[in-house]
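Now for my pick.
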Amino acid sequence: MTQDIALHRLAWNDALSEMDKYRAHDVAQNAIKELGIEVFGDEILTPSLEKTGSEWETGASSLAEVYMAGKIAAEILSTHAPLGIGQCVPE
């Protein structure tokens, strides 16, 4: 499973670095199907967002890249995560 996670992580990071939301959605969908939403979130999504944030802090990523990574992640979560994870619950 570790090798599967690494392959999905590499594909996900490539899609995010190119800001290709369509490819990111495809990669996420495949990873979630194979690994589950929890593993995708814990092992792929969260570390990639933390890495992007760290790169922004050091000047290696632009604000646009950070924004797009967050936007793509929010779209993924709103599509694939159970209500309450990454979503606002209407009052």
